[in-house]
Design goal:
Order of helices and strands: EHHEEEEEEH
Distance between the termini: 27 Å
Strand order of the largest sheet: 1-2-3-4-7-6-5
Largest sheet: 7 strands, antiparallel
Helix content: 10-25%
Oligomer: single chain
Strand content: 35-45%
Shape: globular
């Protein structure tokens, strides 16, 4: 992580100051957790922000502008997938952004972390 802070709002402020346009509507339950840190990185031809949260297990939220990743297949509905080595991924699109949430958690835990959030 490039920036560390336990306050999620400070992560958002830092990314904004670094020139990454963070969307206004992030998952509220995730923002209630203690954050670990964040960073901005170049991925292929686009920019991606990573925000990490500690909720008994670590959650990693990747955010990218859809216009920079037109080849990524994602819908507005939540899509969950179990990955190797105990990882789970959830992905969705909202307001011109692509979101990917990963954690070593169950699909149920990931879904609960996105409760009260509508893509």
């Amino acid at each position: 992580m490039k920036y560390h802070n336990k306050d999620p709002e400070k992560l958002v402020s830092w990314l904004t100051a670094e020139g990454f346009p963070v969307p206004d509507n992030l998952p509220p339950k995730l923002l209630e957790q203690k954050s670990i840190g964040c960073r901005r990185l170049k991925w292929s031809e686009g920019q991606v922000a990573i925000l990490c949260f500690n909720a008994e297990t670590v959650y990693h939220l990747f955010i990218a502008q859809k216009a920079e990743f037109t080849d990524v297949d994602v819908s507005e509905a939540f899509e969950y997938k179990e990955m190797p080595k105990g990882w789970t991924m959830g992905k969705w699109e909202k307001d011109g952004y692509i979101f990917i949430l990963t954690s070593k958690a169950t699909v149920g835990d990931l879904s609960a972390m996105l409760a009260n959030y509508t893509p």
